[in-house]
Amino acid sequence: MLSLQSPVNHLAGVGPSRERDLARLGIYTVGDLITYYPFRYDDRTVQAGQSLQHDSRVTVQAVIQTPPAVRQKGRRSVMTVQVRTTDGMPLAAVWFNQLFLRDRLRPGVAVSLTGKYDARRRSLTVSHYDFEPDTQSIHSNRLVPIYEVRGDLTPKVLRSLLLKALKQLELQIPEILPHRLLAKYKLLSKRDALWQIHLPQDRESLRQAKRRLVFEEFFLFQLKLQAFRHLHKTDQPGIAHSFTKEQWGEFLRALPFELTDGQKRAVRQILLDMRAPHPMNRLLQGDVGSGKTIIAFCAMYAAYLSGYQSAMMVPTEILAEQHYESASRLLGELGVRIGLLTGSIRETERKELLDKLANGELDAVIGTHALLEEGVEFANLSLVVTDEQHRFGVEQRAIFRQKGHHPDVLFMSATPIPRTLAMSLFGDLDVSVLDQMPAGRKPIQTYWVTPDKEQRVIRFLRKELAKGRQAYIVAPLIEESEKMEGVENAIDLYSRLCEPLAGFQVGLMHGKLPAREKEAVMRRFKANEIQVLVSTTVIEVGVNVPNATVMVIYNADRFGLAQLHQLRGRVGRGEHASTCILIAEPLTETGIERMQAMISTQNGFELAEKDLELRGPGEFFGIRQSGMPEFRLGDLVADANVMQAAREEAQQLIDSPDFWILPEYQELLAYLKNENVLKAPIQD
Ligand code: ADP
Ligand code: MG
């Protein structure tokens, strides 16, 4: 009898060569085969001749009336056959470059034809055909599943194998989800879902099948996560920070401004976590400019008051330098000893800094990835903050653990990462949200102009500069590139703009400058010794110069929405009204929509949604490249609400004593054991 574990060659029709082809798709067992899902479906439902829509993809059943008329030019050919649909409509069926069919297209032969219908010519450009069609067939007159294939395999062969496997398995597909959940969420049984995902009755059953299988995928993922959490909870001691109310009150009075309500709430949540004896794992989300940095400093000060060290990790040297300066100004004044650690620090300085960190002569350190390197040791690290650092995940945290610490961790991000996605990136975490901007901010006016309006942009720029403000000008490239003609580069733009901006200091910034020079330019811009900074996107993240009020972006259509939003966020950080000018002549519909989205909203969450819509979920903030867990059917962004439900259910189940003893959860326990989450025998 066939089971999920049976090798695929137990299926009739699978010999050595087919077995090899299947193996190339990762299919070794019958279970692998039935979870090899279609990547799309072709609607080949036969339509009546009268109901065909112009310019749409249709399927008809027809009988050939005439021998093919062929026109040929070199290797190209057009072959036309007059047919009559079974309900009596005459049509011309057209094949391109398929001369090999010529002899089979004889009058009287019945065919099923799928293709684009042209109502004016009464013709069909054939993309798929079936001779002697059988309306009961799994290959036509229905939603037909299309699979990715290799070697000699065709989607047709896979369809037949799947039908065989599903029929023979019948009762050998065990249900893994608890019945309570099936009922609660009205989910199809596993057996029905597998049938419907491969051979859907209609679009609705396909939708239900997907919903069920995505739920299962996410639920099992969450079950693992929650089981880990449950089993490792006790052996992960954290640090319970403590300090007095008076000390904290004093600190709040030293701040340069009053915290917004959102900031106060976030600080409260963070301090609660820090006081608790288990490690904090919190994400602070707030749109660009909402004031996250000060919250990091609050947490770092709390660590200092409790007698511990803290570290802040950021993605760029510019940002490290900037945060180091502001931290020195605020926390340094209050007695906190702070160090700066980046990759470009001189060896002697670095050695001294590492010594001080190791023997406790420094209370806090701000730096780049250099903080993770070997040789960086702490005397008593209790807090790690990461700013705009999406790559900081589970593995990096493990590095700190190896260094002998279980620090509290605070992630800060302007990227509106859906909660579920954040969880898979950072583990099981809590979230604080800054949902308002500091008081007194004026909205940023955003304009989109074509490149021929450059003179007007420069005139506007001069007017703002004359008022004492500063500006950023951003280009996509550092230097001229032959491969990308017509794309601005920072070096040429800098030379070109110096003259029209005469009277003001113009600076140049890009990633190829040595770190020291970058720092120097940034420092001069901050001190208003430079009024205009021509730059690449190195200033994209985190840079804070409140007096800068104009952001001009050349070839704006070459940037993603998230990136444009980050760039725009460099202005509008102070009391003055700010402007963002997008210079672009987009060639695609999407490009135009992106520009319009930027004009119509300033809300990062809305833009992220738009981005998602324009680019498709998989590409959302480069999820594909970032080592995220991959799901076969589930989409972390589009199915975010399913993940949320799965998470709640998994947590509840794991926390309930029933789970570990009742027989109805056998399948799930076996799954956890199989995944090496549970090492002990299931029942004792
Ligand atoms: P982001 O969330 O983008 O990291 P920053 O922390 O850089 O934002 O803050 C942006 C600007 O707002 C900074 O100049 C900061 O000093 C200022 N700021 C932050 N919080 C407040 C507040 N409560 N009141 C006034 N200004 C604030
Ligand atoms: Mg920031």
The CATH homologous superfamily of the largest domain: P-loop containing nucleotide triphosphate hydrolases
What characterizes the major β-sheet?
7 strands, parallel
Outline, from the CA principal axes? globular
Structurally, the number of domains stands at 4
- What is the average of the pLDDT values? 87
In CATH, what is the class of the largest domain? Alpha Beta
Low-confidence stretches: 618-628, 680-684
Approximate helicity band: 25-40%
Assembly level: single chain
Radius of gyration: 31 Å
Descriptive account of the structure:
The chain contains 21 helices and 21 strands. The chain is α/β, with parallel strands linked by helices. The protein is globular, with a radius of gyration of 31 Å. Mean pLDDT is 87; it is low at 618-628 and 680-684.
List keywords for this structure.
single chain; 684 residues; alpha/beta; OB fold (Dihydrolipoamide Acetyltransferase, E2P); Rossmann fold; 7-stranded parallel sheet; 6-stranded parallel sheet; 21 helices; 18% strand; globular; disordered C terminus; binds adenosine-5'-diphosphate; binds magnesium ion
Write the layout of secondary structure elements.
Layout: H1 16-24, H2 30-34, E1 40-43, E2 57-64, E3 69-73, E4 76-85, E5 90-96, E6 110-118, E7 123-131, E8 143-146, H3 155-169, H4 179-184, H5 190-198, H6 203-232, H7 245-254, H8 261-275, E9 281-286, H9 293-305, E10 309-313, H10 317-330, E11 338-341, H11 347-359, E12 364-367, E13 381-387, H12 394-402, E14 408-413, H13 419-426, E15 430-434, E16 444-449, H14 454-466, E17 470-474, H15 490-498, E18 506-509, H16 515-526, E19 532-535, E20 548-553, H17 561-568, E21 578-583, H18 589-600, H19 604-615, H20 640-655, H21 666-674
Parallel strand pairs: 5-7, 9-14, 9-15, 10-12, 10-13, 11-12, 13-14, 16-21, 17-19, 17-20, 18-19, 20-21
Antiparallel strand pairs: 1-8, 2-4, 2-6, 3-4, 4-5, 6-7
Helix pairs in contact: 5-6, 6-20, 8-9, 18-19
Bound molecules: adenosine-5'-diphosphate (ADP) and magnesium ion.
Magnesium ion binds at residues 292-293, 387, 542.
